Request: fold
Amino acid sequence: MLSDMKSLKEIFHQEKSRPYLIIVDQSSSMFFGSEHAFKSVLAAQLASLIAWQVLASGDGLSAIITTNDQQHYIPLGYRQKNTLKFIHQLNQCNQQLNNSVPPSSTHLDITLKQAQQHARSGYSVIIISDFLYLSASSQQLLYSLRNRNSLAA
Reply:
């Protein structure tokens, strides 16, 4: 009986909380900065702060970290373990970043298509990027994502 109550409480909590999808650009276009910090480092720091705030508010977190040639997806989770997994993957992507190979011109489109698959509706989607490779098709994908979710970029 007690385990049934815990399950019901967890289901209720997940139904009333809002899922978040954080998209973080860690491509070589972000490997640029001033004397204070690289764009990629600031993006990682901001994404980490947002992730901790999402966890503290009891909401769910999922994430996509995009690099020059890969997208790393962290599935929706409501626990600290999920947030730590996201930050660990973000740190790995940031450490591997270099400017030797530019990202493909469609890397943003690929990431946004993946976001549409995972954030079907009702998500708060936060995109942290310099949008250097924003194209007309990327804009259409952003509009579509915004129509079904709350979008901040």
Remarks:
- The first strand starts at residue 19 and ends at 25.
- The chain has a mean pLDDT of 88.
